[in-house]
Amino acid sequence: MTTLINKKHHVFIRLPMAGMILFVVFYIIAAMQYPGGSYTFPNKMGFNLKDNYLCDLLDGQTINGLQNTARTYARMALAILCFSLMLLWVYLPKLFTVKNKGQIIMSVAGILSMVITLFLASEVHDIIIRIAGVFGTVALILAVFELYRDQYLMLFYLGIICLVLFLTNYYIYETELLLYTLPLIQKITFIFCLSWFILLNRALHKKLQVK
């Protein structure tokens, strides 16, 4: 029976990490396929790390009016990432020694954030960002608190950085203060958050002693 449980965990615990790696691969492909155009430089060719948002790759048309040949890869990447992180949020409470209701709220908020993010390519992009952002913030705060309480200090400090970056993105997005910096800050945030999620995934794998 224990062997069967371990095999089950072996499959599902490894999937989020694999999904995050696939997300990066598909998004790089999408960026290479992007015809061009950003809000700062509408007629500039190609995808620019400094000027383009990751969401630009999801649109049916580019900002300069061309058909977006990158969107298929970008939407596949988004779906893979969302389902991967949903699975991680499902399993994350197992990382902690003492179980409580806060972990359930954390898990549900994280899952809802990813479910809502799946619709990021829709015409109500701004609403999706705001709603998913609220659920995501709740999940991150609770996760960071639980990490501190269980003495996962490295993950706690990295989680604080991710939370600060996440809230910085949200603040700039809402206030438009220093908006020109947001595309680059967005990518820095993604790097930190994906790194954190991967480390969480590894810690969870070790905690469950999946061989």
What does this structure look like?
The protein starts with a helix and ends with a helix. The chain has 211 residues and is an all-alpha fold. Helices cover 68% and strands 0% of the residues. It has 6 helices and no strands. Helix 2 (71-91) runs antiparallel to helix 3. The chain has one domain. The chain crosses the membrane at residues 12-34, 73-92, 104-121, 127-145, 152-172, 184-204. It comes from Gaetbulibacter aquiaggeris.
- N-to-C span: 15 Å
**Count of discrete structural domains:** 1
Mean pLDDT: 92
- Rg estimate, integer Å: 18 Å
Along the chain, the helix and strand elements come as HHHHHH
Portion of residues in helices?
55-70%
Which structural class best describes the helix and strand composition?
Answer: mainly alpha
Q: Please describe the biggest sheet, giving its number of strands, its sense, and whether it closes into a barrel.
A: none
- Looking at the structure, what is the overall shape? globular
* Total beta-strand segments: 0
Poorly predicted ranges: 1-5
Q: Helical stretch count?
A: 6
Strand content: under 5%
What key attributes describe this structure?
disordered N terminus; mainly alpha; 211 residues
Quick rundown:
This is DUF998 domain-containing protein. The protein is an all-alpha fold. It has helices at 2-33, 71-91, 101-117, 125-149, 153-175, 182-207.
